[in-house]
Design brief:
InterPro entries: AA-Vitamin_Transporters, EamA_dom, EmrE-like
Pfam families: EamA
Order of helices and strands: HHHHHHHHHH
Largest sheet: none
Helix content: 55-70%
Main location: membrane
Structural class: mainly alpha
Number of strands: 0
Number of domains: 1
Radius of gyration: 19 Å
Shape: globular
Number of helices: 10
Protein name: EamA family transporter
Keywords: Membrane, Transmembrane, Transmembrane helix
Strand content: under 5%
């Protein structure tokens, strides 16, 4: 979809370049980790791990690059991390640890991909090149494909829709708005996604939500929310998140 749209617009094939190397790898790791993690995780649980991990990684990248949080934002980061720890701690209602860690890796990769998009001057073109690069990396997975008999027409149709509409066109929109957002706003803008996934999991997939889910999610949402908080009358540092 992206290749057709951008190729037609520019009159030539849109191929990966050197500056798409890092975001293409991040997108590839995100997609692979996301796919394998959801083999063992419910929709709501996976989303609750994925998006906070991505948001926290964005915050950490900002810190490494010298964009330091305020004290209240530090408290929010620590609270969100504590929520993830509570959520993944061993117990009867704990999600599968390996699946949870793989999904956390997907979230971290999404954070790196989003950070790379902060400097995209041509979002659609950049997204297309990133997707082409990630697609080429996916060829490395061919030796690990399972039984071909498991591939069904319905699954192929859903995958095509997911790739062309909800991913390809959705990622163009995401890269288009990123340059206009601060790191914290970009991180917190996806807070509704786990809640939507949880609702969809309950209504459409018959999933149940445990007390651990509500406690962990409350801590995570509150923590991420604090990263956007500004004390009344407090003068924010120039490079504050």
């Amino acid at each position: 979809m992206l290749g057709l749209l951008l190729g037609f617009q520019h009159g030539r094939a849109v191929l990966p370049r050197g500056d798409t190397f890092v975001p293409a790898i991040a997108l590839f790791v995100y997609a692979v980790s996301f796919s394998y993690a959801y083999v063992s995780l419910d929709a709501a649980i996976g989303a609750l791990i994925l998006f906070p991990a991505g948001q926290l990684s964005l915050q950490m990248i900002g810190i490494v690059r010298g964009i330091y949080p305020t004290p209240i934002q530090w408290a929010g980061l620590l609270l969100a991390i504590a929520g993830l720890v509570v959520f993944l701690a061993p117990g009867d209602t704990a999600p599968p640890l390996i699946g949870g860690l793989i999904m956390a890796l997907a979230g971290i990769s999404w954070g790196f991909y989003s950070w790379a998009g902060k400097g995209a001057s041509r979002p659609a073109l950049t997204t297309t090149r990133n997707f082409f690069g990630a697609s080429l990396l996916c060829l490395l997975l061919i030796p690990f494909f399972g039984n071909a008999d498991q591939i069904q027409p319905t699954g192929i149709a859903l995958a095509v829709i997911s790739g062309t509409v909800t991913s390809g066109l959705g990622y163009i929109t995401w890269y288009a708005v990123l340059p206009r957002l601060s790191v914290s706003t970009a991180a917190a803008s996806q807070l509704s996604v786990p809640a939507i996934a949880a609702l969809g999991g309950v209504l459409l997939l018959g999933e149940t939500l445990s007390t651990r889910f509500f406690v962990g999610s409350a801590m995570i949402f509150a923590g991420i929310g604090l990263t956007m908080f500004k004390w009344p009358g407090f003068r924010m540092p120039r490079q504050s998140l």
